[in-house]
Amino acid sequence: MVEYIGIEGIRRIVGRMGPAAFMEGLAAEIEADYGRWNDFDKSARHAIHSPGGVIELMPTSDGRMYSFKYVNGHPRNTARGLLTVTAFGVLADVETGYPLLLSELTVTTALRTAAMSALAAKSMARTDSHVMALIGNGAQSDFQAIAFHHMLGIRQLRLYDLDSLATEKLARNLRTLNLPGMQVTCCRSAAEAVQGADIVTTLTADKRNAIVLTPGMVVPGMHINAVGGDSPGKTELHADILRRSDVRVVVEYEPQSRIEGEIQQMPASFAVTEFAEVLSGAAPGRASPAEVTIFDSVGFALEDYSALRYLHKLQLENAQSRQQIDLIPDIDNPKNLFGLLAHTQSGAARQNAWGPSQLAVTPG
Ligand SMILES: NC(=O)c1ccc[n+]([C@@H]2O[C@H](COP(=O)([O-])OP(=O)(O)OC[C@H]3O[C@@H](n4cnc5c(N)ncnc54)[C@H](O)[C@@H]3O)[C@@H](O)[C@H]2O)c1
Predict the structure, then answer these.
(1) Tens of pLDDT along 123-147?
(2) Distance (Å, rounded) from C-alpha 344 to C-alpha 339?
């Protein structure tokens, strides 16, 4: 049997811990895995594009465990009442190749993306950051707000979305959450939202080279958590922001980010730092209080590996609520896979479907 976490399962796990504690725990797992960067088999994800979106496969392994995520990105889906991003994934044992866990990753992707954003911001944003602009107030936004409140000490959020109903949704959810000390302001433009912001998180979904932030909106010392530009031809920052002489850009895995990140707008010679270098101390996340730092997030397979490993551990710790799925055959004689089919039918049905009964006599 394979461990299974569906939507009810993730609600239960996150509900038990609370989303803030869950994301903090997940950020620690991601940090630990980025800390052993060289153990991982890494590749840019495999993406199949269509006019309306993209479907991606994201595999990685550290030689002991293997994971992959299936994820889509379809910005026009919300107009049809569907999510922009959905996902599921598998954690497997490399020694046998057997899957250990099949899990939903739609909610988990939002949790892991926010955990990763907050983790990066901890080494990149100014330590006195308290105000964050959140531009794009859709499915991912609540998670980012909670993570930055809990892990960075953000106490003022300035919200903006082209769709005012999305901003109302986020403001309403934040009121219900009642995060200690949090002030929320709904703004009428991105330019208004970034006023006085120490951190700007861009979380928009639009399959084009959008210009959510212009150079004039960026001030010295700002940290930009650029999350929504994550596919070829799908960016959020004006390229002149990247060209500033005081800019430092940190990416997850450079070969993938060159294709999918904000830096796809720049020549191959444009200098970037990988997050693993920041964690190891080989490069700073921020060199001075006045520097403009950009976390050019696209989402890397290692973060989903960490999330699946974390979920597997939490699932095993809670034996009562554990669910399993019969995804892989459990048979006494592994050479008699066929016997599994023959033994699942009643005698009469087997006779009709399989012909002479001697075909089905081998014990499974
Ligand atoms: N980097 C990562 O690891 C990662 C992970 C998950 C999702 N994403 C990306 O994050 C983005 C947000 O995902 P989501 O699930 O919240 O999508 P969503 O469709 O639920 O929300 C996106 C919001 O952006 C708004 N928007 C679009 N263009 C805008 C603009 N110019 N200014 C202001 N608002 C604008 C839309 O009205 C919508 O409310 C997507 O592009 C998705 O692909 C990245």
Answers:
(1) 999 999 999 999 999 999 999 999 9
(2) 9
Kindly give the number of the ligand 1 atom that is closest to the alpha carbon of 300.
Answer: 3
d(CA 45, CA 269) in angstroms, rounded, equals: 22
State the pTM of this model: 0.95
Residue nearest to atom 1 of ligand 1 (CA): 298
How many C-beta atoms lie closer than 10 Å to residue 17's C-beta?
14
Tokens 């999350």 correspond to what residue? 227
Q: Domain count for the chain, please give it.
A: 2
Per-residue pLDDT reduced to its tens digit, 319-362: 888 999 999 999 999 999 999 998 655 555 555 665 554 444 34
- Average pLDDT (177-189) is 98
The answer on 51 and 130 residing in a single domain is no
DSSP designation for 45? P
DSSP-derived letter for residue 159 is E
Contact 136 CB / ligand 1 (< 6 Å): yes
Positive or negative CA dihedral for 278, 72, 92, 25? positive
Q: Which atom of ligand 1 is nearest to the CA of 297?
A: 1
* Positions marked catalytic: 230
| Same-domain check for residues 286 and 232 | yes
Looking up residue 230, the CATH number of its domain turns out to be 3.40.50.720
Instruction: Please work out whether the CB of residue 261 comes within 6 Å of at least one atom of ligand 1.
Output: no
Q: Is the CB–ligand 1 distance for residue 137 below 6 Å? A: yes
Binding site membership of 134 for ligand 1 (Cβ less than 6 Å) = no
Cβ atoms of residues 184 and 174 within 8 Å: yes
